[in-house]
TrEMBL record:
It holds the Pfam family ALO. PROSITE patterns: FAD_PCMH. This is FAD-binding oxidoreductase. PANTHER family: D-ARABINONO-1,4-LACTONE OXIDASE (PTHR43762:SF1), L-GULONOLACTONE OXIDASE (PTHR43762). The keyword Flavoprotein applies. Residues 12-183 form the FAD-binding PCMH-type domain. It comes from Actinacidiphila epipremni.
Amino acid sequence: MSTLITDGSRTYAAEAAALVRPRDAGEVADALARARRSGTPVCVRGGGYNQGGLGLAEGAVQIGTGGLDRILDIDVAARTARVQAGVTWDRLREALDPLGLSPRVTQSYGVFTVGGSVGINAHGRNIDTGVLAATVVSLRVMLADGGIVDADRTRDPDVFRLVLGGLGLVGVLLDVTIELTENHEYRKSRVAVMPTGEYPRVLREVTADPGIHFHYARLAVTPSELWDKLLCVDYRLTPGGNSREPVRSEPLGRADLLKQRGLFLGCTYSAWMRERRFGWEVQHRARMETVRRNNVAKESIQALSIPRRRSGYWLQEFFLPVENLTAFLDAGRAVLRAADFQLLNTTLRFVPRNTDAFLSYATGDRVAAVVYFRQPLKDAAIARTVQVMRRLLDEALALGGTYYLSYHRYATAGQLLRAYPRIEDFFRYKHKLDPDGLFRNQFAEQYAELDPERAF
Ligand SMILES: Cc1cc2nc3c(=O)[nH]c(=O)nc-3n(C[C@H](O)[C@H](O)[C@H](O)COP(=O)(O)OP(=O)(O)OC[C@H]3O[C@@H](n4cnc5c(N)ncnc54)[C@H](O)[C@@H]3O)c2cc1C
């Protein structure tokens, strides 16, 4: 019996031929062997939070990694952890906390799996490290033929680089060894409102300051002040800090949840609330705090998980060279205003250069601009959003930018090619490792046969 599965955007769906939940490499091998024999494609799903149908393919066997949930080793001296792919960041941080350790890359949401984060090469608000790929020491992946490759930067480096941000198309990641750091203490050292034009200078100062490990900015999104000003937040290391603060995981406290829901989603329907939103956000974030790395800049996924039948909450993310950020925001503001497109939020983050992943989105230092909005799930409304996002992407591409593959697949093949010039090589390599196309998802179905003129 087939089962209908949707992704995190509630837009993309597929009938799965079967759902399997292996607990070890042997069970993954069995699932792949059965799929090969029956000629059924396979796709892999961690938490399923991506918004691009990356864990979906029609009629595929879906491998859920929830059973691969063991922390295999924590080497305190070497500061590394080897974990199975289905372990979530919350679970890992709970295990590391008593040891005074923390992952080097910290996503704001703890519910994502380590495997799913490797699969899209996630990044956090920490500016001391950058993308997750930079902290992956080695990984073990099962390829389409059932063989296991133990890869790092010197052993099977091509496989290593393809799996990082490989969108589940290269193989099933079994386990991964990542670098850790101390569960440092930080002090929120700056909460400042400034005109957007000042931000590139401030960002240069922030990134040159070795004491600031976490940093982000929130742009005003009300129609009258759209992207004109922003709120900038820094966290500074407090050397030798000895505060005690146990790790917090989902579900976060009720008060926090209500506050975050109110801030984000209360503004969805009320223009009056939207106009006041930026002021509330400043108030909400202004509280100075001392916080441990395992808790810093954490948000609650529950605050965003309000089920609605007719709408979803979508993200899009653009990566810009730092020097072109202001030009992108100016051009993007005009696009959004012309379309009367209402955002719920825009966050800026710094992503230092890293090219470990084959499909790197940070081939130089980048600022990530993450936009968040409520999306009515009607065809006409989706078509309108696609047009707006394509225009924003055109502006980003013209300024040497790119976009994140984790979210909606609105980009034309031509835009994808410009954003990821190595995408054709990626599919060629994949074909070499997986000649029968066992690993499939909707991204590959849309883009593997690249025709720059083809839109979906
Ligand atoms: C509200 C929200 C906030 C977000 N914030 C951030 C953020 O701060 N920074 C950021 O970088 N991203 C962010 N994301 C994106 C998020 O990191 C990705 O969607 C991530 O993939 C989610 O992890 P997951 O476990 O749900 O992965 P999934 O969505 O299940 O999988 C993601 C990809 O990895 C592949 N995959 C999963 N497990 C394996 C495996 N074991 N082997 C091989 N391939 C595998 C899948 O096939 C898929 O292609 C956010 C997303 C949402 C919805």
